[in-house]
Design a protein that fits this description.
six-stranded mixed sheet; TIM Barrel; about 800 residues; five-stranded parallel sheet; Immunoglobulin-like
Length: about 800
């Protein structure tokens, strides 16, 4: 039985070297083990929406094959369900598959805020709203951990872009930090109680997240009560001692013992108190005790489990899809829809997940085209219509138009291809590929009924939205998405998804558009708290589709609304002709709509899903979120209630408000806004100047770009070689050229992941080399790229020879990466 006394006894039996060895991985995916005292190894592996356990050589970005596992919709899709019960069921399935493969920790869910539509990892995150993100993440965590497998809430904190993610300094004011970027994590930690939290690569206001004592200790542990283990993102350790002191116990992957030796040396020199190490060891032992017994599953039982989970994946995909438009009841399709042409490459070869470390090898994949052919619809043919990655083909377009002329209804499948959304790379723009847009324009000229089916994990511009008859967005629906789309198009299932993010008309409408991923060294969050609908609704900006939007094949009526400071109740009736699921959304509108205050006009305060048969009614009670009437007080450094007369709103989106109730709350008013901060009071933050942002921060802004005159250091990233000339430019050019070649060869995932190398700090070259390079060799490489090529070459060669001699004479305790499968 695990107790604090037992853990202290185990720790007291360890040598200093043994304790330090538990602070880093034994290999790429496993923690270190000890024989005496007995400490088991734990396997951690990727899995926000499906288990990614590699069966051979290990890597972080999914370059090598993984074992088959159920691929569920990504977080961006699951968020559209607004369904905590479904999220927990998906978590239970993920945990069960992890336990069957002897995995102790599943690295997910991800719940960073979708600050900007172009962020390359948006498909892995839930929402632009922290309350929705945190509640869904907590539910998924509870599901995973119910199976004896630890979850890892990530990436803590403010992982808002992929560009230079391993070195970027996310500069954010304190209110936005707590109200927007930390609030989801707070909810997930308190309500989900994850066994681990993964720190992010980036800096937060000048300090690496993994070394940020305020984040990892003051906030995570002291304020929120987290009692688990903090693990680095893979290669995310900068200063091992600083991370240890801040609260990071586990560095992954293995650093071949180099950083363990740093810990031992610091304690022996009196530079680090051994009690700090003992606390981190206690966190490792706590995790080991929490992880349940995992054991391999017989083939027949595993097949049966995968069959059950595939049906759950189909259900989740149905619930994740959002019906954005349905003019003149163009959907669902039936006999009256006549002859149907299916056009678009995504119909035959669906895009059902993102790229990078979350890449799952599915147990099967349902194709939309084959699923549609299995229905009673009169499918007269299929044509791809366009090539992936905006490839030009007049033949494909001509054949698609010829087919469309034979049809009464055209189903056109569009979306973002594999090169557009990936870990390590932000999107270049918010548009669909030009060849897809050209095809839609040509189809519109035929004056036939057009139904668009979208695929992708983030918003896109939809210039044709008002011209087509219907738009169904499947997001990234996982391996069951194809069957789900067919069910939704034919009415075998009724769309119930609601957008968990706003859809602007164009990218220029996004408040962070002017400066997102524009600077080399920093990411300035000049928009502050005004992310997504908090911005659009504050300034009254038009949007393509508001936060929470989604249509159904039936209708719902709201009545009998009442609310107090803790809970609201509302009667919902299905007044249509089909069973359906409604997402009832509660918003709290600030007194006087927060006019003249740094505050959103309205914020999501609660939600519930309710499924009703035709004519059925139900009264739904919805708790209001904890901070529904509060702001984060930067002077007191805590949340406080703001008094006044609020309006509690019930509706079907942030702009489709159906009922309202006034509610007086006792508390202090917000302070008057200084003139210099006027844009933050009005919400017009798109054009905030650096000076105004500095005034909000209360400090000068750090340098935005790299200094080319300063020498590169171990903390510098390889992208900083650009423009330096000599070997530095050769190194940078070699990486970028490799990415272009891989893309030309159609190896999109590998090409995207090659960009990861550009953002790799030089220190990680040594630490992730599995002992092939030490710091002396790294210093030789740095001398080479800093302009002294020949001297650096000699130093590198000399250090390599010394490293080889040590390797031959010193016995190393080696832990090979296990071969699975």
């Amino acid at each position: 039985m695990d107790t604090a006394d037992n853990r202290r006894r185990l720790t007291s039996e360890m040598t200093l070297t043994q304790k330090a060895s538990l602070m880093s991985g034994a290999n790429f995916w496993n923690t270190e083990s000890l024989d005496q005292p007995r400490v088991p190894s734990i396997m951690l592996t990727d899995g926000p929406h499906g288990l990614r356990k590699q069966g051979g050589a290990a890597d972080h970005l999914g370059l090598n094959a993984s074992l088959p596992a159920t691929c569920f919709p990504t977080a961006a899709g699951i968020a559209n369900t607004w369904d905590l019960t479904l999220a927990q069921r998906i978590g239970e399935a993920l945990g069960a598959e992890a336990a069957a493969e002897e995995v102790g920790v599943l690295l997910g869910p991800g719940l960073n805020i979708k600050r900007n539509p172009l962020a390359g990892r948006n498909f892995e995150y839930f929402s632009e709203d922290p309350y929705l993100s945190g509640a869904l993440a907590a539910a998924m965590i509870r599901g995973i951990q119910s199976q004896g497998v630890g979850a890892s809430a990530k990436h803590f904190a403010v992982n808002a872009q992929e560009t230079h993610r391993m070195s970027i300094d996310e500069v954010v004011d304190e209110r936005a930090l707590h109200e927007i970027h930390l609030e989801g994590f707070r909810i997930a930690v308190i309500e989900g109680e994850p066994w681990t939290v993964m720190s992010s690569y980036n800096k937060v206001n000048g300090t690496y997240a993994n070394e940020h004592r305020e984040l990892l200790d003051d906030i995570l542990r002291q304020q929120w009560g987290f009692d688990g283990l903090v693990v680095t993102d893979w290669g995310g350790n900068n200063d091992r001692l600083a991370g240890l002191v801040a609260g990071n116990a586990l560095e992954m992957p293995s650093a071949d013992g180099v950083t363990d030796q740093e810990i031992v040396a610091a304690i022996e020199a009196g530079d680090l108190n051994e009690s700090v190490l003992d606390q981190r060891v206690d966190e490792v032992l706590t995790l080991a005790a929490r992880v349940g017994a995992t054991s391999p599953m017989a083939d027949a039982a595993q097949r049966a489990m995968h069959d059950r989970h595939h049906e759950l994946a189909v259900e989740a995909a149905r619930r994740s899809a959002v019906l954005l438009r349905n003019d003149n009841a163009a959907l669902p399709l039936g006999v009256e829809s006549g002859r149907i042409a299916v056009i678009g490459d995504f119909a035959e070869t669906p895009r059902y997940q993102g790229a990078g470390s979350s890449l799952v090898k599915p147990t099967r994949v349902d194709s939309p085209l084959e699923s549609l052919r299995a229905t009673d619809l009169d499918i007269v043919g299929f044509e791809p219509g366009f090539s992936r990655r905006d490839g030009r083909s007049t033949t494909k377009r001509r054949r698609a138009l010829d087919l469309a002329r034979k049809a009464d209804t055209v189903l056109v499948f569009l979306g973002l291809d594999e090169s557009a959304e990936a870990e390590g790379v932000d999107r270049a723009h918010m548009r669909l590929a030009a060849n897809q847009l050209d095809l839609v324009n040509d189809l519109l000229a035929l004056n036939t009924r057009i139904v668009v089916v979208l695929a992708g994990g983030a918003p896109v511009e939809l210039p044709f939205a008002d011209d087509v008859d219907a738009i169904l967005h499947g997001y990234l629906g996982g391996q069951g998405g194809g069957r789900a789309i067919a069910d939704l198009l034919t009415g075998a299932a009724n769309p119930g998804g609601r957008l968990a993010e706003s859809y602007p008309l164009t990218y220029d409408d996004v408040p962070s558009a002017a400066h997102f991923a524009e600077f080399e060294a920093t990411a300035e969050h000049r928009e502050s708290i005004y992310v997504g609908y908090r911005y659009y609704d504050k300034v009254g900006a038009p949007v393509r589709y508001p936060f929470g939007h989604g249509l159904s094949y039936t209708q719902f009526e709201y009545s009998d609304f009442r609310a107090d400071a803790r809970v609201a109740a509302i009667k919902v009736r299905n007044s249509g002709y089909l069973a359906g699921t409604e997402v009832v959304q509660l918003y709290v509108e600030a007194p006087d709509k927060a006019e003249g205050e740094i505050r959103a006009a309205r914020e999501l305060a609660g939600f519930a899903t309710v499924t009703l048969e035709q004519g059925e009614s139900a009264t739904v009670e919805i708790p209001l979120r904890e901070h529904a009437f509060s702001v984060y007080d930067t002077q007191e450094r805590q949340w406080r209630t703001v008094g006044g007369t609020y309006t509690v709103l019930a509706g079907a989106s942030s702009r489709d408000i159906l009922l309202a109730a006034a509610l007086h709350i006792d508390g202090q008013p917000l302070p008057q806004v200084e003139r210099a901060l006027a844009p933050y009071a009005t919400g017009h933050v798109a054009d905030v100047t650096p000076g105004q942002f500095g005034d909000l921060l209360g400090r000068p802004l750090p340098p935005r770009d790299w200094s080319r005159s300063e020498p590169l250091t171990r903390a510098s990233i390889i992208a900083q070689c650009q423009g330096r000339g000599g070997f530095a430019s050769v190194l940078h050019g070699g990486v970028t050229a490799s990415a272009r070649v891989l893309m030309a060869l159609g190896r999109v995932n590998a090409a995207n992941n090659t960009h990861f190398v550009l953002d790799l700090p030089f220190r990680s070259v040594a630490r992730m080399s599995a002992g092939r390079m030490d710091d002396a060799m790294l210093d030789g490489l740095l001398t080479m790229v800093d302009g002294s090529f020949w001297r650096g070459s000699r130093d590198l060669l000399s250090s390599w020879r010394a490293h080889r001699r040590r390797a031959r004479t010193v016995h190393h305790h080696h832990h090979p990466v296990p071969k699975e499968g």
